[in-house]
Amino acid sequence: MKATISDVKNHVGSEVTIGVWLANKRSSGKIQFLELRDGTGYIQGVILKNEVSEETWLNAKELTQESSLYITGTVREDRRAPSGFELTVTSLKTIQIAHDYPITPKEHGVEFLMDHRHLWLRSSRQHAILKIRDEIIKATYDFFYDHGFTKVDPPILTGSSAEGTTDLFHTKYFERDAYLSQSGQLYMEAAAMALGKVYSFGPAFRAEKSKTRRHLIEFWMIEPEMAFCTHEESLEIQERYVTYLVQRILQKCQAELQTIGRDTTKLEKIKAPFPRISYDQAIDFLKQEGFTDIEWGDDFGSPHETAIAEHFDVPVFVTEYPAKVKAFYMKPDPDREEVVLCADLLAPEGYGEIIGGSQRIDDLELMKKRYEQYHLNDPSYKWYLELRQYGSVPHSGFGLGLERAVAWICGLDHIRETIPFPRLLNRIYP
Ligand code: 4AD
Ligand code: MG
């Protein structure tokens, strides 16, 4: 019977055939141990010389790392095996012998691994990270579905920019100019006025000349937007969502967390509500910590975010930033118009910003003023202004960077391992 490694538990004592790759092999005299993988898991195949045909024995001897084959054997329970099961091989059919697979069990440099990303994905570590990424995506869909949100897909090719014009990817749209989306937010605001609570999950492109452990050129973002929702109510949704993601991974991905060596005690502490500090308090704190050059009105860089977040074991909201370091659409604090009703959520352990969000300007006259200040009086932004003209309501939203969340939850040193094929400042291969 055809099976996968993940469902051998249903076939104990029976003979199954599984399509596999050889991850590793050991042999001693009359016995060969094949470490096999099929994408759903790992299992050890045991071949006893005296119990198989000579042809099977010799075919097994020829197998090299990453050779592909169909393996047939009897499933046995084995408490000592990592998967809990073992395969007593009866026969095998080689599909292809892989010659000189470049990624061997020895250590390789990062650039070498990145050049071989298409193969590196097969390693148990990368497999585990991609499984966790998938579970975060699934948990996102579940969370927003359960909270009454509708998923809406904003366009990727746009004529307007949400997050400023400095890092836009330009392309031609027939005779006209267009940009790859930096954020779906402006469109999600329109969608929230139609559907109330909405969210998107899609790619975002930023031509950022930053070469850091946190920046990708192409990344995936989850962007909820809520009508009749204040900044404070949005923060509550954010902390519940992030708590839910972490709890789901702890619940469903213990094996994967173990494979990548994640210290799960750190994740177990993640529970809403999260602490909040204002931008003003953060500036004072940074000055005390020895950041003498930072002044009120400066934006925070990675070292600042890390210093702030290091003081907490759970994510922390930094709220009410100066309007001038944030986007044009953020609503000013009614009591203090130089700051806006916004927050960045900084993850602990040095991971920095995972969410950026705010309440949006809903007043037509103020938005017109912002259009003047930010030079947005261009036909491509006309529709966004109209949202403030016909039944404008208080509304808020936020964006969570999927890869930043994966990096933090998995405890990875660099964002490059969080996405199958990372686009980095100097890399678009493979
Ligand atoms: O803070 P950002 O730029 O906010 C927005 O785009 C808003 N329009 C979101 C909204 O309110 N709907 O980006 C949101 C998040 C960041 O907190 C970060 O997690 C992630 O997107 N992000 C990146 N992730 C990887 N590489 C980059 N270059 C990123 N830039 C932002
Ligand atoms: Mg931000």
UniProtKB/TrEMBL annotation:
Residues 130-430 form the Aminoacyl-transfer RNA synthetases class-II family profile domain. PANTHER family: ASPARAGINE--TRNA LIGASE, MITOCHONDRIAL-RELATED, ASPARTYL/LYSYL-TRNA SYNTHETASE. Its main location: cytoplasm. HAMAP family: Asn_tRNA_synth. Keywords: Aminoacyl-tRNA synthetase, ATP-binding, Cytoplasm, Ligase, Nucleotide-binding, Protein biosynthesis. It holds the Pfam family tRNA_anti-codon. GO terms for molecular function: asparagine-tRNA ligase activity. It catalyses: tRNA(Asn) + L-asparagine + ATP = L-asparaginyl-tRNA(Asn) + AMP + diphosphate + H(+). It is found in: Cytoplasm. Coiled coil: none annotated. This is Asparagine--tRNA ligase. Belongs to the class-II aminoacyl-tRNA synthetase family.
